[in-house]
Specification:
This protein is of the alpha/beta class. It has 14 helices and 24 strands.
Length: 498
Amino acid sequence: MSELTSSTFCNYIGGRWLPSASGKTIENRNPAHTDDLIGRFPDSSADEAHQAIDAAARAFDAWRMTPAPKRAEILFRAAELLVARKEPFARDMTREMGKVLAETRGDVQEAIDMTYFLAAEGRRQYGQTVPSELRDKFAMSIRQPLGVCAIITPWNFPMAIPSWKMIPALVCGNSVVFKPSELTPLSAHNFVTVLEEAGVPAGVVNMVTGGPEIGERLTVDERVSVVSFTGSTAVGRLVNQNAAPHVKKVHLEMGGKNAIMVMDDAALDLALEGCLWGGFGTTGQRCTAASRVIVHERVHDRFVDAFVARAAALRVGDGLHPTTEMGPSIGQKQLEKVMSYVSIGQQEGATLACGGHRLTEGALAKGFFHEPTVFTDVKPEMRIAREEIFGPVVSIINVRSLDEAIRVTNDVAYGLSASIYTQDINRAFRAMRDVYTGIFYVNAPTIGAEVHLPFGGTKATGNGHREAGTAALDVFSDWKSVYVDFSGKLQRAQIDTV
């Protein structure tokens, strides 16, 4: 799409598509071809975020009173629309954020899966019934919605992650104000369009695009009951600080520095494939990316030789091309961050085994492409082994034993995902027990979570909440314990039970 034919898009507030009130817009450009202008999106003000909160607050009561199975029917229709539009939505996503088409199809599929799965919770959302301590008294618990939910999402999974947050919020009976990343607003627009067409009532879902002042308003407004944020640790801390004075429920999903442990008894070909996919899938731009590979000394040299050769041979290019295996970084800022960490690794004394440079030849000249990069001779205390890079850079660390591998895996600030390649079930279960992460894999890479299990991490990765699975309902609902005394007299629990 050329600049002459590109579209200007709108916010979605109170069931209406509204242009930027100020007339200011943000250009959305293809990171593989920066002269490809995808569209212009509102560079909204805090006032527009305020209007969206107004609309969500007005819509909340009617939506919470809509029977949960009816809410579920609407969301099921949204899943059906996503199925029908999977291919064009995937192509839009590759064009706006760069990852290869197979991966963006997977991103849309995850939104489909999540929407189907959580729509079914409209007929569940189970509570508990328990025996009372007293005669003629009934005791139970039920879920209740919270109100207006602020949803703030990143650019790397621009349809999957919004679905993880918005669908459980909606099925629980909440209304939503959605701020997508300003780098991937088209996928957000596509997702909200589907919810609108499926029949979500006006004001229940609102979307405002723009920069940090939108997120700030959403976190400080007293009418917002829940803030669910996925992004960097630095921004997540600001979200927490802004929300704290109002005692909002805050869900944070932040960084990761994930490790794959390759033991001396591992099926090396399988481990090699897993480490390539874990390290360079989505150009390393995943919170679950395997940016550390911890290899037992007995297989270290053999593994490194094969891994470096395979990484160097990965085909980098436009994600829409069928032969491309790795796309661009999302933008100039992220590319510069990757390049700065390459310099840091070299300065720290690690060996640059392959890659390390920006790609600028031919068709790659107008995109944000970087070579798949592997460092060897990496020490656990090096910054490249401890800090999240969010790019196609993998550090290989040599260890002598499983115990050392576990210590190195745990010795970072984050605790999102880890994995082990081994044929020894005893080793696998020891690692499963002793690695302190929210997600763990055996004989698979650190990426590939499924929608029906909780997703999230420990330590600096998050603040204890989880998304996906039925655990997502806990972020967007509160428990209410209900006691019905039909004895016709005063009964005092813990007193009259004696």
